[in-house]
Amino acid sequence: MNDVVLKLDKAQLTLSGNAGALDILRGISLEVTRGESLGLVGPSGSGKSSLLMIMGGLERATSGRVMALDHDLTAMDEDALARFRRGNMGIVFQSFHLIPTMTALENVAVPLELAGAADAFDRAAAELGAMGLGSRMNHYPAQLSGGEQQRVALARAAAPRPAILLADEPTGNLDGTTGAAIMDLLFDLRDRHGATLILVTHAPELAQRCDRIIRLADGRIDAEDRPHASKVAE
Amino acid sequence: MTLGTAARFARREMRGSRSGFVVFLLCLTLGVAAIAAVGTVRAAITRSIADQGAVLLGGDVQMSFTYRFASEDERAFMEKNAARISEIVDFRSMAVVGQGDAADRALTQVKAIDGAYPLTGQVILDPPMSLDEALAPQDGIPGAVADPVLADRLGLSLGDRFRLGVKEFRLSAHLMREPDSATAGFTLGPRTILRSADLAGSGLLEPGSLFDTRYRLLLPAGTDLSQLEAKAQGALADSGMRWQDSRNGAPGMQRFVDRMGSFLVLVGLAGLAVGGVGIGAAVRSYLDGKTETIAVLKSLGASSSTIFATYLLQIAVLAAAGILGGLILGGFAPILAGPLIAARLPIPVEIGLDLRTLAEATLYGALAAALFALWPLARTRDVKAAELFRDLGPNRRNWPGWRLGAILVALALALAGSAIILSGLQRLAFGTVGGIVGALALLALAAAALRFLARRFSHRARGRPALRLALSAIGGPRQEATSVVLSLGLGLSVLAAIGQIDANLRNAIAGDLPDIAPSFFFVDIQPDQIEGFRARLAGDPEVTRVEDAPMLRAVLTRINGEDARKVAGDHWVLRGDRGLTYSALPPPNTDIVAGKWWPKGYDGPPQMSFAREEAEEMGLKLGDVVTVNVLGRDIDATITSLREVTFETAGIGFVMAMDPAALQGAPHSWIATVYADPGAEAAILRDLSNIYPNITAIRVRDAIDRVSDALTAIARATAIAAGVTLLTGLVVLIGAAAAGERARVYEAAVLKTLGATRAMILGSFALRSALMGAAAGIVAVAFGAIAGWWVMVFVMQGSYRFEALSAFVIVTGGALMTLIAGLLFALRPLSARPASVLRARD
Ligand SMILES: Nc1ncnc2c1ncn2[C@@H]1O[C@H](COP(=O)(O)OP(=O)(O)O)[C@@H](O)[C@H]1O
Ligand SMILES: [Mg+2]
After folding, report:
1. Deepest of B26, B197, B369, B493, by most Cβ within 10 A of its Cβ?
2. What total of structural domains would you count in chain B?
3. Residue B715 shares a structural domain with residue B672
4. What spacing in Å lies between the alpha carbon of B67 and ligand 2's midpoint?
5. Do B752 and A58 touch (CB under 8 A)?
6. Coil/strand/helix, residue B21
7. Looking at the DSSP assignment, which residues form a beta bridge with residue A20?
C-alpha cells in the first residue's frame, strides 16, 4: 500500500504579526502514505503546529499546494474545507478544545451529526465506551480530569473513522502515565482502523513510535528519519 | 496594608481592561442622567412657581366666586385689607364672524377685565402696544385682543370685527402672553381679553349664566398671608369663596409638575433597574475573564479579602465615574436645552443645577450599582487556586451566602424605600418597585424553565445539529441564557408596560368616548329660551337624543346642623361648589334605590335626592338634613331619596337634585347635551346660535381634542423617558452579545474543525437568540399586561384592555434587536480562522 493521502508541494505560510510579515513555513514539501504514522518534531516555534493546521485545512497556505485525499485544500473555500473534514480528518489538540456547554457524549456526537449519521449518539457512546469512559458520558468537560478530557477529544476525532488523524502534542498537558495511555489509544486507533496518523510532539520517546520522523527548524524541514527501518538495519 | 495592596492590584488590573467597562459606565450613566434631568427640570419649575407666586397668581391674593360677583360684605372685606383690587370675569362664549348662514363661530374663553388689570406682570401683545391702547374703542367699537389660534380659526385679521353675544368687538392685537395664564387651569377655548364695561348690552352674563369672578388683591407690605386667610375664611364662611395666595401661585400646575416629575423619575428608575442587570452582567463577565488572574494571585498568597477589595475598588471607581457622568449629562443637558424647554412651558422658567436632585440621582445610582455588582463580585471569594489546574466554573456556588445575602436585601430595601419616600407617589412607586422585583423573579423563573426545557428536549434534537447546539448552549453549564433573558426581558417588560398604558390612555380618549359621547354641550340657556331650544331639536330627524336640566351651583355646608367637613371628612363633593338641579319628576332613566321622589306639585319643606354612591361615602342616609348655600342663600333640605348616578357616560349627572319649589326664584340657566348625526352638527349649531346668540356651544369632539393634546404632551414626555430605558436596554443587549462573543469565537472555531459550515453555525446562533428572545418576550407581554392593568385600573381609575398590537410591536422589535445584535457579534466568530483561535489557546 503506497498510495499518497497527503501531499505538500512547497507550502509556505506567512502571517502578519504586529512586527510585520512573519515567514512561518518556508516551503515544505512532503508526502504521507495511507496507514503511515508520521512524527513532527522540532524546537518550540519551529512551525510544527502551523504545518499541522495547514494539513487539516484550518489554516490556508500562503503559497504552494496542499493535496489531501486527492482534494486541493488550497483551492477550497472555508465551508468546502469544513465539509471535507467531515469523515476525512480528525484533529486532536494539546488543550482538548471540547465545547464547554456539551456533555462528553454530545461532544463526541457533533462530528457524526454534522456528517449526517443517523446513529450518531449510539456510535458516540460506543466510541466513549471503547475509550473507557462509559461512566463519564453525561459529564460536562469541566467535570472531567485532563486525561479524561483528552480521551473525549480523541473519541470525538476518531468516531467518524477519518482517513487522517492529526494530533498536536496531545499529551503536552498531561502527566507521563496518562500521556502514555493516550498515546496507546492513538496508535491503537491507527492499527484498528488503518488511519493515517500525523503526530506533533517534542517527547523523543513518543516520536520514536512513529514510522517516520520529520524534524522542523525555523519553518523548514531540517531532517527526516525512519526509526524502525534503521533499527532493522542495525 | 491590605487596602494598599488591593489599590495597587486594582490599578494594575484596570490598565488592560476593555469594552465591558463601557457597558457598565453607559448603563449607570444613562440611568442616573435620566433621573437627574427629570429632577432638574422639575426643580426649576417648582422654584419659579415659588419665586413668582404673585406674578403667576396675578396678585398677592385671589378670591374667586362661581356664577356671581362679590357681595357687599366681601367687597368691603377686600377694600379694608388690600392696597389695590382688580376684578376679572371669566366665562366661555361663542365668537362669531359674519351673518346668518354664512356665519363662522368658535368657542372662546373670555377674560373681562377692569382698568387695574394686570396688578402684576405684563401682558404681551403683537403688534407691541399697551393693553389700554388695544382695548380702547375706535369708531364706537370696543377693542379686544385674542389668542392667534382663535383669530386663525375665524380667519380674523387685525382690525376685523367679530361678535360676542349680540355685541361687536374689534380685534386690535394678538395675545402672546398672559402673565397669569398658569392659574387659569384647563381651558376649552383660546383666550379673548376685553373690558368688562364693554360687555353691557351683549346679552352675556345674564343672571344664571355660567361665569367665574376673580378678585386679585395687592396687599400692603408686611401683611401676614396665613392670618389674613384665616380672617377671610372666618368672616366669609360658607359663601363658596375660594382663596388662593402667592405662597402657592399655581397649585394646579405645581400638582401636575409634581406628579409628572415623580412619574418620570419612576420610569427612570425602571431604566436604572434595566441598566442594573447590564451592570451585573458586565461585572460578571469581567470577573469571569479574571478567573485565572485571581487564581494566580491566590496561589501567590493573596487572601480572599485582598482580592475582593481589589475588584471592589475597581468597581467603585467605575461606579463613581458612571454616576459623575450621569450627573453631568443629566444636570447640564436640561440647562443647555433650557430655552427649548422654557418655550414649551406656560411660565418663564430658569433652569439651573439643583443639589437635592443631583443628590437623589447619586443615591439611586450608587444603590443600584452596589446592588447589582456586589453579587458577582462576591464570587471572586470562591475562586480557588486550583482553578489553574482545572476549570471549576459550574461547581462554583451561586448562592451568595448569608452575610452578603443580608447586605443585598438591605440594599434592595434601601433603593425601594428611597424611591417610595422620595417620589411622593407612594402607590405608584410601590407598584413600580414591586413590578420590577416581580418582573425579575418572573424572568429568573422563565430563564430556569428555558434552561430546563433545553436540557429536557436536547435529545429530541439529535440529528439536527444547529438546534442541538443552540439547546446545549442554553441548557449547558454556562449562565449566558440567564443573564440575557433577565436583561432583555426586563427592558422589554418596562417598555411593554409603558406601551400598554400609553395605548390604553390614547384609546380611552380617541377610541371609546366619541361613540357614546354627545355632539354638543350647550350652556347658558336662559329659562325663557329652553322651550324654543327644545322645539328646534324635537323636529330634527338627525337628532337622536336631547337631555337638558336646569343647573345652579351650591356649596354643601352642613349636615344635620354640623360642619359638613367634620361629619363627612374631605370628600370631593364638599370641595368648592357643586352642580345642583331641580325637577318635578324623576329624570328619565333614573334608578331610585331608596326612598321616594317628591310628589307632583310638591310645595312643602325642601327635599333632596342624593347620588347613592356619594351618599354612602359621606355617611348620608334618608332623613338627614343638609344645608346648601345657593348664591348666598342657605337652604335646609331633607334627603328623601337616593339615586344611581353614573358620571362616566358624559351625560348629565348631578349629585344633588331638589324639588322645584325649593329653588323657586333662584336665578339659573339650563344646560343640555345633544346627540346628533355628525353631518347635522353644523346646521344645529348655526340655527341655535342664530336664534340665541348668548348660548355657548361646546363641541365635544373639540373638547376631546384639547384633552388629547394635553395627553399627547404627557405621552411625549413619557416617550422620552421610555426612550432612555430603551437605549439602556440596547446597551445591555449589546453588552451581553459582546460578552458572549469570546465564547462564540471559540465555539465557532471548534465547530468548524469538526466540519460545520458557516451557515450552520450562524443558524445555530440565530436559533439561540430567538429562543432566549422568545422567553424574554413572553414574560414581557405577560408583565406588560399585568402592569398595564394595574396602572389603568388602580392608578388611573379607568378600564384596561390588552393592546395586542403594541405588545406585538415591542416584543418583535426587541427580539429583532437581540437577533441583530447577536448576529453582528457573530460576524467575528464566523470569519475568524480556526487556526488562530485554537492555536492562541494551545
Ligand atoms: N497568529 C500568529 N501570528 C503571527 N505569528 C504567529 C501566529 N501564531 C504563531 N506564530 C508564530 O509562528 C511561529 C510558529 O509557531 P507554531 O507553529 O505554533 O510553532 P510550534 O508549534 O512549532 O511551537 C512561531 O514563531 C510563532 O510565534
Ligand atoms: Mg505548537
Report:
1. B493
2. 4
3. no
4. 97
5. yes
6. helix
7. A17
Q: A17 touching B, CB under 8 A?
A: no
CA dist., res. A29 & res. B665, Å (int): 121
The sign of the torsion formed by the CA atoms of B196, B197, B198, B202 equals positive
Residue B186, pLDDT score = 61
In three-state form (DSSP H/G/I as H, E/B as E, the rest C), the secondary structure along B174-226 is: EEEECCCHHHCCCCCCCEEEEEHHHHCCCCCCCCCCCCEEEEEEECCCCCCHH
pTM of the model: 0.70
Shortest-distance ligand to the CA of residue A53: 1
- For ligand 1, is residue A219 a contact (CB within 6 Å)? no
Instruction: Kindly state whether residues B670 and B627 are assigned to the same domain.
Output: yes
Identify whether residues B277 and B418 lie together within a single domain. yes
A161 touches chain B (CB under 8 A): no
* Nearest of B63, B466, B490, B61 to residue B270 by alpha carbon: B490
The answer to whether A83 contacts B833, with C-beta atoms less than 8 Å apart, is no
**Is residue B25 pLDDT above 60, yes or no?**
yes
Ligand 1 neighbour A82 (Cβ under 6 A): no
* Beta-carbon separation of B753 and A79 below 8 A: no
Mean pLDDT of the region B309-320: 90
Query: Quick one: B704 and B767 in the same domain?
Result: yes
As a whole number, mean pLDDT of residues B623-638 equals 88
For CA atoms B356, B362, B368, B370, the dihedral sign is: negative
Per-residue pLDDT reduced to its tens digit, A220-230 = 999 898 887 65
Q: Which residue has the cell 377610541?
A: B511
Residue B433 scores a pLDDT above 60? yes
Cβ of B473 within 8 Å of Cβ of A101? The answer is yes
Strands (E), B633-741: 633-644, 656-658, 669-676, 696-699
The answer to whether B259 and B22 are in contact (CB under 8 A) is no
DSSP reduced 3-state for B635: strand
B418 and B447 fall within a common domain: no
A24 lines ligand 1 (CB under 6 A): yes
Say yes or no: CB of residue A171 within 6 Å of ligand 1. Answer: no
CA-closest residue to ligand 1 atom 1: B836
Cell 348668548 belongs to: B694
Residue B297 CB-density burial (10 A; 0-12 exposed, 13-18 middle, 19+ buried): buried
Domain match, B304 and B420 both: yes
- For B148, the domain range is 90-203
Is B764 touching A (CB cutoff 8 A)?
Answer: no
